Amino acid sequence: MGNIAGAYLFPHPPIIVPEVGRGEEKAAKATIDAVKRAAGDISADRPTTVILVSPHAPLFIDYIYVSTLPELSGDLGRFGAPEVRLRFDNNVELALAIAKNAALEGIDAGGLEEVHSARYRINTSLDHGATVPLYFVDREIKGFKLVHMGFSYAPLKTLYKFGVCIQRAVADSGERVVFLASGDLSHRLSEDGPYGYAREGEEFDRLAMDAVRSFSPDKLLDLDMDWLEKAGECGLRSIVIMMGALAGMKVKPEVYSYEGPFGIGYGVARIKVEQDEAKGPDAGKNG
Questions:
Q1: Which of 207, 112, 208, 108 is nearest to 159 (CA)?
Q2: What is the strand order of the sheet 251-259 is part of?
Q3: Whole-number Å distance between alpha carbons of 272 and 250
Q4: In angstroms, how far is the first alpha carbon of the chain from the final one?
Q5: Which residues fall within 8 angstroms of residue 120, CB to CB, at 6 or more apart?
Q6: The domain containing residue 69 runs over which residues?
Q7: β-strands 3-10, 266-273: how paired?
């Protein structure tokens, strides 16, 4: 029987990778220290597989991309650091099991045929939402398999249910899994930032980090879509899927850092799972 050993909220700004930042990453020192700490904790979790959901994976309105390619690789070439290249074996069996469980709940999920990705010019390499967190994890632990997925624009409650499907697929496997929810927070924290300032951005970041700190998915599942658009958020759906994957489990959340350099919110957190007291997804959303 498989289990989820823990889950982590990871931001993914390429600038925190030294080969990209070239000194500018010092403005996000709290985030860098926190992701290094998280990577060390992941190593201590001893995962056989890492499941990572990224906002920058192939994105569809009502289909959740879960890669079924045998090998997953990507680099940071578009950010000026082609030498930062990572490669992992895909846990295809687990990826297919997740898609199968989702189908049983009426949720469309799975991979892309090569002919379709070529025809529609869909890049199935590891995106920077995956590569940046894995850059730090890869320096602490080797040998794990990866499941790389995105999300869809389905209702948030549907994405939460998809997370429960992930939990069930893991339970039926023999894997020890760590779940990474990749996502920055608001991109509208400063007039000097790339997207300007919006009051909703600060409000969203406070709400999201409080929901993670208290592990309260109910605080997120009914948020207004127009308000979220104004907030300029990135990682909400990753967080919601992560919370679904931990539904009914006894968890111990800890926020490692939050800061907003460059006008963008970065949060790092660990959700430790108390394995002996895990109850399963039917025990309630809040654990």
A1: 108
A2: 145-149, 49-53, 176-182, 3-10, 266-273, 251-259
A3: 9
A4: 20
A5: none
A6: 3-283
A7: antiparallel
Q: Give the residue from 32, 74, 31, 66 showing the smallest Cα distance to 49.
A: 66
Positive or negative: CA dihedral 275, 248, 145, 54? negative
Q: Per residue in 88-121, is it b (16+ CB within 10 Å) or e — as a string?
A: bebbbbbbebbbebbeeeebebbbbeeeebeeee
Count CB atoms within 10 A of the CB of residue 77. 11
Task: Give the strand pairing for 3-10 and 176-182.
Answer: parallel
Q: Residue 209 belongs to what H/E stretch?
A: helix 199-214
Structure tokens, 177: 């899994």
* CATH classification at residue 54: 3.40.830.10
Indicate the number of domains in the chain.
1
Model's pTM, two decimal places?
Answer: 0.94
pLDDT per residue over 133-170, tens digit each? 999 999 999 999 999 999 999 999 999 999 999 999 99
User: Which residue has tokens 């890049």?
Assistant: 123
Q: How far is CA 265 from the centre of its chain?
A: 15
Pairing of strands 109-110, 71-76: unpaired
Give one word for 224, left, alpha or beta, with left for phi > 0 and alpha for psi -120 to 50.
beta
